[in-house]
Amino acid sequence: MQKVFLLIIVAAFFFTNSNLTYSQSTGKIMGKVTDASLGEGIPFANIMIEGTTTGAASDLEGNYVILNVPPGKYNVTASYIGYKKITIKAVSVNVGFTTTLNIKLTPGEVTLDAVIVQGERNPLIRQDLTNPTVAITSESVDILPVYNISDVIKLQAGVVTGDDGSIHVRGGYGNEVAYTLNGLSLNDPYGNSRAVGLATNAVQEASVSTGTFSAEFGNALSGVVNYVTKEGGETFTFSVKGYGGDYATSRTDLFNNLNKIDYFNSGRVEATLGGPIPITQSTRIFFSGVFENYKGTYYGYRLYNPSDSYLTPDNFKSTDARYGNATGAYFFNPFDPNGNGLPSGDKQLVAMDPSNSLNLQFNISQRFGSYIKLKYEFVYDRAKSRSFDRSYLFNPDGVSWDYSRGVINTLDLTHTLSNNTFYTLKASYSYNRAESYLYADPNDPRYLPSFYRKTIGNTTYYAGGTDNDIVKRATTTLSVKGDIVSQMFGVHEIRAGFEIRKHNVKRDGFTLDFYKYKVINGVPSVTSLSVNDLLYDRALTIQRGGIQSVSTYDKNPIQGSVYILDKMELAKTLILNIGLRYEFFDAASDYNYDISKNLTDSLSGYMNAYLKPAEVKHMLSPRFSVSYPITDRGVIRFSYGHFYQIGSLSSLYQNDLRWVANVSSIPTFGNSNVNPQKSIQYEIGLQQQLTDDLKFDLTAYYKDVRDYIFTQTIYTEKARQYNILTNLAYSNVRGITLSFLKRRSLDGMFAATLDYTFQIAEGNRTEPQVDLFFSEAAGKQTETFLVPLSFDRSHLINGTFSFSDPKSWSLGVIYNIQAGTPYTVALPPSLSTITYEQNSATKSMQWEVDLKFEKFFSFGSNLCSVSINVNNLFDTQNDRSVYASSGKALSNVEQKLNANQFNDLRSRISRGDQGMIDVSYLDNYYSQRPERVNRPREVRLGFSLIFK
């Protein structure tokens, strides 16, 4: 603990005694101003970025540095008395990188017009690339067939896309990436996932760090994505873009209702507006808005309404006219006294996975002279969606909707103290709410008792009923962050900072249930509601209530960090990053330190006999990376670091009530006292430029992850079984990536990328669960071993190529070839009693190609375009989810072994019973599953209008 306090004191001293500041949302320009004829440095030359008040003066040797430069392209002007002014055009700056700009001045009159020079293009080889970082700009997005930055992130080497669409960086789980907005965290600690989305048109640049990353960032095991948003420019600009499209596939036998074209099945409209406020040029605004609407891919058939359900004739009283033999026809809608025994659905096709979203972003920035800038930013994100659930295929109105709403407000103060030093202070307030329900009001009469949800025969298809689970959660976060950076002693870029985040996490969930209320002998009685109550009790009084989720809580955890980082740029000799980061996390919750004894003593009820506050967790992370130029076109690098991430609060606070229903139940408990997860990573890489426009990057990496959070099964000394969150899991990842980049030459049209990843990602086995436990009586843990992680792909090829004539037309193509993910073989007992090792088999290879063509038209300084975007150009069919017995998505051995599975339903259908599903759904019960493969070809037609 003394070491922790010492670190804080050192950091505080650093803040108060140095002229520093920084935030990882800008880059810098540095170089040397020399006399063109003598080669000597020119002291006190002025270097300015046109259109801004940002600049610097060279020192006695002619060296200069311009800090805090937002990403983008700039014209840079250099001048000195007795020399001709020179302007270098289109100088590119990227977040976290140094743009080296050496300037040669020739003697002459400074009053003459500036000499215009085309700046050097972005260097293919980054001398200061010590950590694997890629800058994704709007140019990267515009030419390729993508609409979201996440689509470009998926193309990076070492990034694997799961069969569910989730992003896995360097063998990590989908929630191991830290997302930040201009350096401020966007992650919701409830699930360690991004709280709000950001529209592509609002982002100036996204900096993607895979694997190791600098000490400025924390609470992530696999990578960092930092979004830098656009701001208003010198002049007003306005743009509007949009598209509409639908599927165009020959697989209509699998994908129902896709033979009809709906030009707006998927639609998107986006707009931006930005520039200076007319009253004052020092105040600038920027606004973006995106609305997306998607009608769906998977269609259900409304044969039944939620209120229909059914009973067989033997369920009625013998005095009821509907009474009969159990083999008689189903009587649908039996609880309607006026029912005729037939379902009430309108037999219309209904989209079962629709969604829509709205994203708004606004910022306003104000400069106070040349040294102070204040910026306010607001992001609003709202979405509504429904996930496809095959059980509701014939009762599509009974499944729940998912709602989300996120807001983030940030205030950012930047103060430049000198040419070499500036600092930023940031504060943010964010709110993220997620809800899942069918109807907002639990008292809505359309909610029905659980026995309405009844399947047709022995299928999984519901003939009625409603999803009665209602879950609502919300996270509020207050953050304060400070950063400082200074270019010291010429070659040291010193950065330091702190961040405090205070959360409020609330969750409330319950399953709606129905009860019968009666007064018996003057005593009120509440009992469970039965089928007969609804059929025959005319004086029935129904009460509604919720079976409360044990994971209901209201918590106020706190986390914070301090870091210090020195980036040493020793010209072309060595670039070294050394950093140290301290983090803490206080779960602000109690945990049961002897739950086994509590279960043995109490058997059921609340397990709260042995509570104490969870310990505050402290984490210290050293980070080291180095880049060493071996030639003017080749650089090797090495990086090493420790990285921590707290567990998602949804798992830490699970069953926070510590409730056990009865002695026969197997309860599961969270644990707010688990340690943070820790990874140690190593990486070595080589950048090599082959020609002026072609390079490759070869990288080898290793990641060792300990204290992975895992729910373990425990047997007490009295053989009572329960599950609890622990730190017992482990994984390691080894991989090699090879990336080629061919950029478009100045007079050329062709550009391309090719990324190959070979990776092995393994972790503790988790199946079969019955074989994984700790016995307190024996004091022994069952054997475990490493198996491939469920999202691992051993081989992955991503590539792009494009042809373009700027401001005339462009053609962009993305292609992907990847190995299938692992799965566990399981054969029916009648065929084999062998238990196969977890994830010992692999799904079939997958591939897909996307294309975009855009044609531009100009009128004056304005621009418009029309485009066509084709996803899954060749309409390939890739398995996403497979049957354990076959390794195939649309066939298995069960359909042969269980040939008589639906004989009863078939006989009912063949004899003409009304209200039954079509027999084809029985014939194709296992094969008619479009959700188990990738989506078909989709064609989108788009447009854009840009006014300047």
Write structural notes for this entry.
By secondary structure, the chain is mainly beta. 6% of the residues lie in helices and 49% in strands. The chain contains nine helices and 57 strands. A hairpin with a 6-residue loop joins strand 5 and strand 6. The chain is globular, with a radius of gyration of 32 Å.
Question: How is the quaternary structure best described?
Answer: single chain
Which percent band covers the strand fraction?
Answer: over 45%
Estimate the global geometry from the Cα principal axes. globular
The separation of the N and C termini measures 58 Å
Fraction of residues in H or I helices:
under 10%
Continuous helix count:
9
Q: How many β strands by DSSP?
A: 57
Low-confidence stretches: 1-23
The secondary-structure class comes to mainly beta
Provide the residue-averaged pLDDT.
90
Radius of gyration: 32 Å
Question: What's the story with the biggest beta sheet?
Answer: 22 strands, antiparallel, barrel
